[in-house]
Amino acid sequence: MDRKAAQLQTIETLTKAGLVLTEDEMQRVEIADFGLDRLEQEGLQLITYENNSHYCAKELVLFPNQTCPEHKHPPIGKTEGKQETFRCRAGKVYLYVEGEPTESIQATIPRESEAYYTVFHEVELNPGQQYTIPPNTLHWFQATEQGAIVSEFSTTSRDEYDIFTNPDIKRTP
Amino acid sequence: MDRKAAQLQTIETLTKAGLVLTEDEMQRVEIADFGLDRLEQEGLQLITYENNSHYCAKELVLFPNQTCPEHKHPPIGKTEGKQETFRCRAGKVYLYVEGEPTESIQATIPRESEAYYTVFHEVELNPGQQYTIPPNTLHWFQATEQGAIVSEFSTTSRDEYDIFTNPDIKRTP
Ligand SMILES: [Zn+2]
Ligand SMILES: [Zn+2]
C-alpha cells in the first residue's frame, strides 16, 4: 500500500467512525512505516490535532492486525519522557507494557521482528476503555482484524527522541 | 430538566455521535448548572477522561442553544492558568474570547445574565475545527439549535479556581 492509499484509508476509517478532519488535516495525515517498508504489518497512521509545550492530542489509526512497534519515550534533558493516555474509540487494541508478562497473549508478534518485542503485560482496550503509559516505559500495540482508532492524550510529543527496540527503525515520517 | 435527565441526554448525544463511554464514566457525567438553576440556558455537561498534573482531556456536551457562561482560568501560584484547546466534534459552537469584538455576533446572549457577557471576539467552530484559548483569557461559548460536542484538550483542570464574570456563579457540580 502506498502513502496516498494509506492516507485515504485512514481518512475513510475516521470518517466512518464519525470523526471529522479539516481539509488541511487530511493533507497532514502522517503515515509512519518506521523505515521498515512493511506498513500493513508494522506501522501507524496518525493525525496530530495539537502539540504544544504542555500537552498533545492525536488520533491514531491502526489498520486490521497492524502493529505499532515497541518503543519508549525517554527523558529529554530535565524534562520527563512523554506520558501517553490511550483511549480506544473504535475497534479493539491489545496494548503491551512493562510488567508481569501475560501468560498467553492475544496479539500475534510480527514475524520479521519477533526479537524486538520484549514486553508482554497485556491490556485489552475496547471502545471507551483507556490506559495511561508512564514516561520511559516500553510499549507496543496491535489492532485486531477490525482495525482500531485510538485517541492519544499526552504531554508534548518529540517523536525524534523515541527509542525503538528494533535497531533498524528510523522514526522519520 | 433534572440531573438524571440531563445525564441521559448527554449520554445519548455522545452515543449518537459514535463516542463510547464506559459504565463508570456514564455514572460520572458531570452536570454543571453553575448554581444558576437554569441549566438549559446556562450550563454544561462533561465527562473527564483524564486529568493529571500535566494534561487533561474531556468531552463537553452542549444542549441546543445552551451557553457555557463567561469565565477565565487564572494562574495558581507559580503555575500558569489552564490553557484549553476546543475541538468541535459535532454540531456547531460559537466561541467568544477577548480581542476585537465581532460586529454582529451570531450567538444570543442569555437574557437573565446579559451584563455578565463582556467579550465578543467570535470564533465559529464546525466539526473538525478547533481553537486554543490562552491561559487567563475570558471566554464563553454557545451551541446552535443542533447542540454540540466539543473535545477539550488542556493543561491540568482545577475547576474550583475558575473565575466567572457573573458573581452569582458557584462552580460546584
Ligand atoms: Zn508511545
Ligand atoms: Zn474554560
UniProtKB/TrEMBL annotation, chains A, B:
EC class of the enzyme, as a word: isomerase
Plastid in keyword set: no
GO molecular function terms noted in the UniProt entry: D-lyxose ketol-isomerase activity; metal ion binding
Superkingdom assignment: Bacteria
Keywords tagged on the record: Carbohydrate metabolism, Isomerase, Manganese, Metal-binding
SUPFAM superfamilies: RmlC-like cupins
InterPro entries the record matches: D-lyxose_isomer, RmlC-like_jellyroll, RmlC_Cupin_sf
Reactions listed under catalytic activity: D-lyxose = D-xylulose
Transmembrane segments: none
Enzyme Commission code(s) on record: 5.3.1.15
Cofactor: Mn(2+)
Gene3D superfamilies xref list: Jelly Rolls
Protein family: Belongs to the D-lyxose ketol-isomerase family.
Protein's UniProt name: D-lyxose ketol-isomerase
Origin species: Gracilibacillus salitolerans
